[in-house]
Amino acid sequence: MNSKRRLLLSVLIFFLVFFIGIVGFKFFGGGEWSFLDSLYMTIITISTVGYKEVIDLSANPGARIFVVAFIILSLGTITFAISSITAFIVEGELKNILWRRKMEKKISKLKDHYIVCGADETARSIIDELILTKRKFVLIGPSQEKIDRLLSSGGFLYLIGDSTEDEILLSAGIKRAKGIILSLPKDEENLFVTLSARSLNPRIRIVSKAVDLKSEKKMRKAGADSVISPTHIGGMRMVSEMVRPAVVTFLDMMLRDREKVLRFEEVCVEEDSGFIGRKLGECRIKEKSGALLVAVRDKNTGDYHFNPPGDTVIKANDILIFIASPEMIEQLEKKI
Q: CB–CB of 157/106 below 8 Å?
């Protein structure tokens, strides 16, 4: 039995014993004892304070036997209640301490991970996607209750605290993080965390939610790399459903398939890559990994070349965009 159930059981037993005491003293006291007298006798017996009895019980053997039995029962109940309360407090605190240390140890080992701030339904969608695509991340939530609702998506690392505080951001490893996603309920909070995140890690990528479209410019000035408006995205989705339903269905199938996870992914060609200076056709990326190359972002111009031909020469810092699974991307990142 866990400490919480044991505590509830002890409370129920205590009230049962209290009720038995009132009924018992009222019964053995007969018409001479009022309800108040029975209540008084029950309280002084359970508390073992030893005040004077309301009526002398020495002449009533049955009452004396009841008092002896009730004292033993009361002592046992009090002992059980005290041990249950102690276990609940000690075990709960110990569990929290051990959990925090274990969580902090795991987070301290993370590098190039993502931080998610917020615990609303938008955060749930973010978490689902990060888990499906096998990204390392830490969630910062305001309370254990809200985080527990998100844990149904799967296990993940998290911290309980205020995302606007620098200490909690540092505990989440913001200086080693690759990016931070802000999904707090108010634009003011997202703006404040944007400023804090940018000052703590100038290289981190910041993506923030904007409830009000007017907040986008302020957030970008504060350091956000991208600002997403759920209202705008919702409107775009509705139009797409109307004018290009087959495309939307295709993308939905790709996003919702839990067995075969495919996404539009990107891989940056590092400066020490062996692919630099080679043609796409020579690299045989699709044959070796199964990933489908759909575009290349030119490092110099920033232009996107869709469905690039095989004679396209790969340059350092080019971004290759694929339709691929997390496993395919993991292989490509090792090779490219």
A: yes
Quickly tell me which residue has 């340059």 as its tokens: 315
Global pTM exceeds 0.70: no
Cα 84 to Cα 244: distance, rounded to the nearest angstrom = 62
The sign of the CA dihedral 193, 198, 201, 203 is: positive
pLDDT of residue 313: 92
Sign of the CA dihedral 313, 314, 319, 321?
Answer: positive
Name the residue among 200, 206, 233, 236 with its Cα closest to residue 219.
206
**Which residue, of 78, 105, 132, is where some domain finishes?**
105
- CATH code of residue 320: 3.30.70.1450
Q: Within 13 Å of residue 57, how many CA atoms lie on the same side as its CB?
A: 21
Please identify which residue in the block is written with the tokens 């620098």: 166
| pLDDT tens per residue, range 142-191 | 998 899 888 876 789 999 999 999 999 999 999 999 999 999 999 999 99
pLDDT tens, residue by residue, 17-71: 888 888 888 887 766 777 887 888 888 888 777 666 666 666 677 777 888 888 8
Which residue range(s) make up the domain with 307? 262-335
157, β-bridge pairs:
138
Strand partners, 263: 324
Rounded Cα distance, 150 and 130, in Å: 13
Q: What is the C-alpha separation between 280 and 267, in angstroms, rounded?
A: 14
Separation CA 276–CA 254 (nearest Å): 31
Residues 323 and 280 in one domain: yes
One domain for residues 239 and 278: no
Closest-CA residue to 226 (of 214, 210, 237, 212): 210
Task: Look at residues 182, 200, 206, 50 and name the one whose alpha carbon lies nearest to residue 120.
Answer: 182
